Amino acid sequence: PESTPGEPSGPRSRSRSNSFGRNGDKSNLNSNSNAGYSQPTSSSPHREYTSEQLSAVQQVKKCKDYYEILGVNKEATDSDVKRQYRKLALQFHPDKNKAPGAAEAFKMIGTAFAVLSDAEKRKQYDLYGSEEQQRKRSQTQYYENGYYDYNRGFDGDINADEIFNMFFGGGFPSGNVYVRRPNRYRETHRHHNQNQEVASGYNVLLQMMPVLVLLCLSLMSTFFVSDPTYSLSRTQKYEYERKTSNLEVPYFVKENFERENKGSIRRIEQQVEEDYVSNLRASCFRERNYKESMIWRARNFRDKDLEDRAKGLKTPSCDHLHKISQQYVLW
C-alpha cells in the first residue's frame, strides 16, 4: 500500500521485526523493508491540495442555486457566464484540484453552466427552479453530506467532463472517469408527467363530449330535415303560385307539390292561412305602435298640425285583418 500523507511508512516495531529472517540473518533487512514499505522522505508533501482549495470546494458545495455556484447574478450575460465557468472549471478540475469533493464541485459547476448558458433552460430554471428544488426536497428528503445533490436536478444527466472538453477542446489529459448515474427520480418523474398528460387528454375529451354530440346532432339534422312544403314569398326554389280555398292567400310551392302532398293539401292550406294571419297581426301591431308614438310626440311638442298628420296615418295591415275577420272565421 502507498504511504498516507503526514504519517510514517510503517510502525517501527514491525520494521524491526522484519529486519531478521527465520535464521536470524540480517542480510534480508533491506529487501524485506523495501518490499512492503516506502521510506518517508523530507521532500514528499504531506497532502496534494491546499487549504484554500479545500475551502473553495466546500464553498461551492454549500451553494443552493446555479447562479450562486458560478458566482454571477441573474442579470449576467452569456459572456459573463462563460467567463466565470472558464475560471471555475480550471480551478476545480480534478486533475488540478485534489481536495476531497473537488470532483463533485466540478460536476456542479458543469451542470450550472449547462443550464445558464442555454436560453431556454435558463428561462425554465428562473421560472420553476426554486419551486422544483423545494418540492424534490420535501418528497425525497435526500441530501448528500448535508448539501443538496445537484446531480438530482432537472439536468442531472449532464456530464461535466464532456462540457469541459467541449469548452476547452480537450482540457487536461485525465484518467478520471465520470459515470452518469441513473437518475431514478428523473425517470419516474418523466413517466409520471407522461401519465398526467394522457389523463389530461382524456379529461379534455370527456369535457368536450357534450359539445361534440350536439355538433353531430346539428349536422345530422341538416341532412335529415326536409325543405318546407311552401313559402309565402316567391323564390327560385318555390316558383309556382297557388291560393288557399278559404282566404285566397297566395303561397308558392315546388313543381312536384301536388304529387308529393296529395290528400293533405287542405291541411297545408290551413297552415298557410295561419301563418299569413300571424304575419298580418304582427304588421298591424307595428303600424299602430308607430301611429300612436307619432301622436304622442306631436302632443308633447304641442304641434297641432303634426298631431293631425299623425292621426291620419294609414294602417293597411290592421284594415285588412279587420276585413277578413268579418268575412271569414279565423283560427
Automatic annotation (TrEMBL):
GO terms for biological process: cellular response to misfolded protein. It holds the Pfam family DUF1977. PROSITE patterns: DNAJ_1, DNAJ_2. CDD domains: DnaJ (cd06257). It is a single-pass membrane protein. Residues 65-129 form the J domain. It comes from the Eukaryota. Keywords: Endoplasmic reticulum, Membrane, Transmembrane, Transmembrane helix. Residues 26-44 have a biased composition (Polar residues). InterPro entries: DnaJ_domain, DnaJ_domain_CS, DnaJ_subfamily_B/C, DUF1977_DnaJ-like, J_dom_sf. Its main location: endoplasmic reticulum. GO terms for cellular component: endoplasmic reticulum membrane. Gene3D superfamilies: DnaJ domain. Residues 1-53 are annotated as: Disordered. One of its GO terms (molecular function) is Hsp70 protein binding. Residues 1-22 have a biased composition (Low complexity). It is found in: Endoplasmic reticulum membrane. PANTHER family: AT29763P-RELATED. This is J domain-containing protein. It comes from Medioppia subpectinata. The lineage of its organism: Eukaryota, Metazoa, Ecdysozoa, Arthropoda, Chelicerata.
